[in-house]
Amino acid sequence: MHTHKRQDPDQIDTSLGYEKSDARVSGVVTFLVVLSIVAAVIGGITYGMGGWMNARMSKEDGPKSKWAQPVEDRPLGNMVSSAEMEKSVASSALSNPTPRVQSDDGNQDVAELHAREDLLLEHYSWVNQAQGKVRIPIERAMELVAQRGLPVATRMDQGPLLAGDERLAVAVPLTNGFARTGYELDQAAMTGRKER
Q: SS in 3 state form for the chain?
């Protein structure tokens, strides 16, 4: 048996730039053999488990029927959408309780939300009829605010500004915070074309 002696680092000759002794081949071969055996054992175990699980699922599912067979759908091509099918899907969606699965990308839902908001913003409606509270159209509300003005809050004294600070003042809001979606603009353009 070959024994490997440790050398003192000060006694090692580094003039060649590499070690004079080679790595032991027996250690590399042992590692590769053990790795191959472990890989084969794990592969055999997983293959056996997969076969056992498939057999159990087949037993629980019962014999295959014509409905469980794969179907080649390439000859069908693109299926044409029909108006009757869309109406039946829409009517079944209305008859089912909420929350319902969306049948489109949500654009129609947003358009319907904006239409409901428009009804609230553009018409008179009761907030609480018993108390006599009425919701007024936003145009009328803006006219009233322009005539009467907004209530002014009492000014609170602020401390002195620090170096580099300045008092901020916003003259007008930058936006009213509402914008139609692209889908709604397209729908409005299409209905405008149809009416003409």
A: CCCCCCCCHHHCCCCCCCCCCCCCHHHHHHHHHHHHHHHHHHHHHHHHHHHHHHHHHHHHHCCCCHHHCCCCCHHHCCCCCCHHHHHHHHHHHHHCCCCCCCCCCCHHHHHHHHHHHHHHHHCCEEEECCCCEEECCHHHHHHHHHHHCCCCCCCCCCCCCCCCCCCCCCCCCCCCCCCCCHHHHHHHHHHHHHHC
